[in-house]
Amino acid sequence: MAALLASATVWGLIWYPYRVFEAAGLSGIRASVLTYLVALMLGVLVLAARRCCERPSWWLLAVGLSSAGCNIGYVLAMLHGEVMRVLLLFYLAPLWTVLLARLLLHERAGRVGAAVIALSLAGAAVMLWQPRLGLPLPDKGAEWLGLGAGFLFALANVLIRRTPQHSIELKSTAVFLCTVTLGAVAAIFEPPAALGGMTPVHWGLVACVGVVLLVVNLLVQFALAHVPANRAIVIFMFELAVGAVSAWLLAGEAMGLKEWLGGAMIVAASVVSARADAAADGRRQFDADSGRTAR
To answer: Which residues form the EamA domain (predicted)?
Structure first.
């Protein structure tokens, strides 16, 4: 729980250094490549220290690619969109988690899953409704990126549960490697960088963000190995509180009534999902204890 809260705090603040980098001439994609490159080099050292010699798998590649898409999409969305609207769209993740857990983990959603889907969609519709646009869809490219990053976040969480055979360190290193590779490919299509505004302080901040990313990814991998994905999503909701305060203090952004109402529905969907998951864990534990007693 502490690992998830710490991670949520970092992710609620991480958008700000990337805005600092972009203001100095380093784009979000290039900044992502550099910060995750620092995390990758440190992650390789951690793997070497652990003498990890696991055999990679296609599932490991899927974890890396889905996390890479999530990481880069999240950074770009937070750079070019309103922090809280992007975060709320990102946290439609419980909706995707219910659907993906059914597909990849064969977990039945049932009535609770249907309630999660209904609440999530209703919250998104309230938040996104624009009379001039008609359908309640994201209004800007950054909002679509936030929505897509949330889907990939849910996919990565489910895939991490699907790959208990791989260590935390190996999965984290795969995430860093895929993020650097995907970002480097995307950076090819960007205009040449103008780095005149990047000072030694900025480059030091790049290194610091890379170290923080390594620590946070290890914490998330550790937490998701011990906390079910649906319950973890709710704890990650602390990021919304951190994001709201930081967006208000650092970017002068504030939410309107629609965002508050829609966000409340999305948070409620996550709470319903987590409570159902906890109840299911309790039933499984009771059945296991009963079986042991009977034997």
So the answer is: 3-128, 143-272
- Predicted confidence (pLDDT) per residue in 216-263, tens digit: 888 887 887 777 666 676 677 777 777 777 887 887 776 667 667 776
Phi, psi of 98 (to 5 degrees): -60, -45
The answer to whether 66 and 152 have CB atoms below 8 angstroms apart is yes
Binned at pLDDT 50, 70 and 90, residue 49 comes out as low
pLDDT of residue 70: 93
Residue 34 belongs to what H/E stretch? helix 28-50
Rg of the chain, C-alpha, whole Å: 20
Q: 252 in helix, strand or coil? A: coil
* 40 has a pLDDT exceeding 80: yes
- Euclidean distance between the first and the last CA atom of the chain, given in angstroms as a whole number: 34
What is the percentage of the chain residues whose pLDDT exceeds 70? 71
Q: Please calculate the CA angle 192-188-29 and round it to the nearest 5 degrees.
A: 80
Residue 198 to residue 156: CA distance in whole angstroms: 33
Is the pLDDT higher at 115 or at 21? 21
Rounded to whole angstroms, the Cα distance separating 21 from 202 reads 7
Domain assignments of the chain as residue spans, ordered by start? 2-290
Amino acid at 79: L
Helices (H) then strands (E): counts for the chain = 13, 0
CA-based nearest residue to 114, from 101, 141, 95: 95
Q: Is the dihedral of CA 266, 271, 1, 226 positive or negative?
A: negative
Q: Taking the model in full, what pTM does it have? A: 0.77
For residue 293, the surrounding DSSP H or E stretch is: helix 257-294
Structure tokens at 83: 């922090």
